[in-house]
Specification:
mainly alpha; elongated; Ferritin; 148 residues; 6 helices
Length: 148
């Protein structure tokens, strides 16, 4: 299903980050490398923070006043297209770091679509907040990995 409203986009993003949260939690519990377990635990916390932020944004949207995405290139993204799919029992520190920092073109496309979907300042600010949240997570991960 292609997202048609701002609310649809936020739900897709929440599903994506929930899957990453669950992945990092599962891998942290089974990690045999202490550094990887610590990093995965930190990644799990960052994803939970993102989920909480997305839920707060959704609560601010009046369901009776859906803001539709403007016509443009079709977005055929699904939560599966956004999902990080790593079918492994455990990850080393380097693999966990690579997973966390790997670019996700679908995620970038979705946030980019929000940025360009309307002249409404509130939606542009939402997109900017979501993009900054992703960038701040990358910075935190990079800082955390330097400390290790």
């Amino acid at each position: 299903m292609s997202p048609t409203t701002i609310s649809d986009v936020l739900k897709l993003l929440e599903t994506y980050h929930k899957r990453r949260h669950d992945l990092f939690r599962r891998l942290a519990k089974s990690a045999t490398d202490d550094r990887a377990a610590t990093l995965l635990g930190h990644l799990e916390e960052l994803e939970q923070h993102t989920i909480d932020a997305l839920r707060a944004e959704q609560e601010g949207i009046d369901p009776d006043h859906s803001t539709f995405l403007t016509p443009g290139a079709a977005l055929t993204l699904t939560s599966d297209a956004l999902a990080a799919t790593y079918d492994v029992a455990e990850m080393s520190f380097d693999e966990a770091l690579d997973c966390a920092l790997a670019p996700n073109e679908a995620l970038e496309e979705l946030i980019g679509r929000l940025e360009n979907c309307t002249a409404a300042l509130s939606v542009q600010e939402l997109a900017a907040r979501l993009r900054e949240l992703e960038h701040s997570k990358d910075r935190q991960i990079a800082n955390f990995s330097r400390e290790e």
